[in-house]
Amino acid sequence: MFGCLVAGRLVQAAPQQVAEDKFVFDLPEYENINHVVVFMLGTIPFPDGMGGSVYFCYPDQSGMAVWQLLGFVTNEKPSAIFKISGLKSGKGSQHPFGAMNLPQTPTVAQIGISVELLENLAQQTPVANAAVSSVDSFTEFTQKMLDNFYNFASSFAVTQAQMTPNPSEAFIPANVVLKW
């Protein structure tokens, strides 16, 4: 039903089912991981009105499990990228994995997925710095494209003294593009 991807590693497509509605993926050597992608495989959708809360669990200095809510996946939002590099030192949050005895070793973290009602998902507050970017990809693309355009156009800049008259070409002052 779920998959987990860490850059430079094989895709994990078989989570360990620890309860009827709870699944975990082990993340060995989690100290070297910056981002995690959690996605639905597309083989089994969530039942109507259900989705999955995604949690990150790592052992603190005393070996106790610290769980932090990252976000969620649903049938309408079947994948998500989470930044976990800044979460390795922080406070845990309320989670549904509390009563379970999940093995913790100092170098292994876990991604937990809890199947819950969509209305419960909407009321949960993920850890603030788990989101990869608050700017949508179209806005980010547009900003980078315009920066690139300005840099490209500026590379052809000449002074008025260097200009040769050519009635078939139009010249646009660079400051006009910059003002726009």
From TrEMBL:
Residues 136-180 form the Hikeshi-like C-terminal domain. Keywords: Cytoplasm, Nucleus, Protein transport, Transport. Acts as a specific nuclear import carrier for HSP70 proteins following heat-shock stress: acts by mediating the nucleoporin-dependent translocation of ATP-bound HSP70 proteins into the nucleus. HSP70 proteins import is required to protect cells from heat shock damages. Does not translocate ADP-bound HSP70 proteins into the nucleus. Its main location: cytoplasm. The keyword Protein transport applies. It is found in: Cytoplasm; Cytoplasm, Cytosol; Nucleus. One of its GO terms (cellular component) is cytosol. It holds the Pfam family Hikeshi-like_N. One of its GO terms (biological process) is cellular response to heat. Residues 6-130 form the Hikeshi-like N-terminal domain. Belongs to the OPI10 family. This is Protein Hikeshi. GO terms for molecular function: Hsp70 protein binding; nuclear import signal receptor activity. Forms an asymmetric homodimer; required for binding and nuclear import of HSP70 proteins. Interacts with ATP-bound HSP70 proteins. It comes from Halcyon senegalensis.
